[in-house]
Amino acid sequence: MNKNCNGILMLVAAILMPLMSFAHDAEVGEIYYNLNNDTKEATVTYQGNSSVNEDYTRFVVIPSSIDYNGVKYSVTSIGDEAFNNCSRLRSVTIPNSVKSIGDKAFSNTGLTSISLPASVTSVGAKAFMHCTDITSLTMTNSVKSIGEGAFCGCSSIKSIELPNQLTSINDSTFSFCQKLVSIDIPNSVASIGRGAFRSCTGLIAVNLPNSLKTIGEGAFRSCSALTSITIPNSVKSIGDRAFASCFGFDSFTIPKSVTSIGNKVFADCRNLQSITNLSKTPQKINVKTFAKYGTLHVAKGCKSIYESADCWRDFWIVDDIM
């Protein structure tokens, strides 16, 4: 029985081996592609069955179309992990025919800059993760979605102009972009995801839009250079540890629209002395929501309400807001 099983396994392996060696469909001009014969579209990919490669080096120019076996294919996408781990890749030119950038498409590469053409509408998860040499990023307003962790660990990026069609900034999208100084969130974004800007230690200025409704867990955690941020009156919830370890805060204003405040939102914010809460109804908070309890400013006539509310009563409460 064992001999029969071993024989079958060896036969299957022998059949699959040549297929695994050529997971790409074609090589044209030293670039590998997968081909869709129905739509006559080509997707840039990697050689063989392993995306852990060094095949693409230095400068790559992707054409808008290729000819293969007498058939013309339009290059419409850069596939998942196509250039993943190509540490010697320094520059890539993307044609105006490409509509999407796949997951991990350029992660862990040596790119120094990236410019996406107006044809690109989506950037996949972790697409440029750990591209530590990228200093500039250009995206057009055609981009509608950016995947989780797309630019996580791009530690040399100093500024980013976000497209105005984004509806959300996903989890960890810009986390650990340590040289990012400022960011304007476009007035189309309704949510900022978990850890979206976590450990952006150089971040000084953030402009939040009036379209924003939720700030996710740890969204700005460990943004130690951030000294202030204005929360718009559209925000309804602030997630756990959203501003934890933001040492630069000495004051913070909670708009009246906020109904949910998570646990440890201001953990380790040791310099936070003053909170202004514009809501006339105290939100439910945890004993660890704030690192310390300084002065709490509330609306006229609301002092007694806050004095009877769990945790809020631990502040020095002043009802001086008209």
Percent helix among the residues? Answer: under 10%
**Biggest sheet architecture:** 8 strands, mixed
Number of H/I helices: 2
Distance between the termini: 85 Å
- Cα-atom Rg, whole angstroms? 25 Å
How many beta-strand elements? 24
Q: Determine the mean pLDDT.
A: 91
**Main structural class:** mainly beta
User: Order of SSEs, N→C?
Assistant: HEEEEEEEEEEEEEEEEEEEEEEEHE
The coarse overall form would be elongated
Strand content: 25-35%
Uncertain regions: pLDDT < 50 for 5+ in a row? 1-21
Detailed description of the structure:
- With 322 residues, the protein is mostly beta strands.
- Helix content is 8%, strand content 26%.
- It is elongated, with a radius of gyration of 25 Å.
- The model is unreliable at 1-21 (pLDDT under 50).
Question: Keywords, please?
Answer:
8% helix; mainly beta; 8-stranded mixed beta sheet; elongated; 322 residues; 2 helices; single chain
Topology (elements, then pairings):
Blueprint: H1 2-21, E1 26-28, E2 31-36, E3 41-45, E4 58-61, E5 65-68, E6 71-78, E7 89-93, E8 100-101, E9 113-115, E10 122-123, E11 136-138, E12 145-146, E13 159-161, E14 168-169, E15 182-184, E16 191-192, E17 205-207, E18 214-215, E19 237-238, E20 251-254, E21 260-261, E22 274-277, E23 295-299, H2 303-307, E24 316-321
Parallel strand pairs: 3-6, 4-7, 6-8, 8-10, 9-11, 10-12, 13-15, 14-16, 15-17, 16-18, 18-19, 19-21, 20-22, 22-23, 23-24
Antiparallel strand pairs: 1-2, 2-3, 5-6
